[in-house]
């Protein structure tokens, strides 16, 4: 079951779309978003999204900057929200 924080995250993510809509999917059971075919531009946009909106987790209000090795580009990347 999705947490309240995850529901808020999904709402804001859908509205701002730091990654094009056809390249991400929410997995409520795991409180995460999966990004498909990750690009350097996605990483930049995701980091800006979290700087602007916070982490959606009261226990950890600041989301760590996402740093990705080149090997991960064009692959899948998961971001977990909350516990």
How many strands appear in the DSSP assignment? Answer: 3
User: What structural class is derived from the secondary structure elements?
Assistant: alpha+beta
Kindly report the average pLDDT value.
91
Helix content: 25-40%
What fraction strand? Answer: 5-15%
| Most strands sheet | 3 strands, antiparallel
Unreliable stretches (pLDDT < 50, length at least 5) are: none
Helix count, DSSP H or I runs of 4 or more residues: 2
Topology as a string of helices (H) and strands (E): HEEHE
Overall geometry comes to globular
Radius of gyration: 12 Å
Give the N-to-C terminal Cα separation.
Answer: 12 Å
Strand order across the largest sheet = 1-2-3
Could you walk me through the main structural features you see in this protein, from its secondary elements to its overall organization?
Helices cover 33% and strands 14% of the residues. With 83 residues, the protein is α+β, with helices and mostly antiparallel strands. The two termini are 12 Å apart. The mean pLDDT is 91.
Question: What's the short version?
Answer:
This protein is α+β, with helices and mostly antiparallel strands and 83 residues long. It is built from two helices and three strands; from the N terminus they run αββαβ. The chain starts with a helix and ends with a strand.
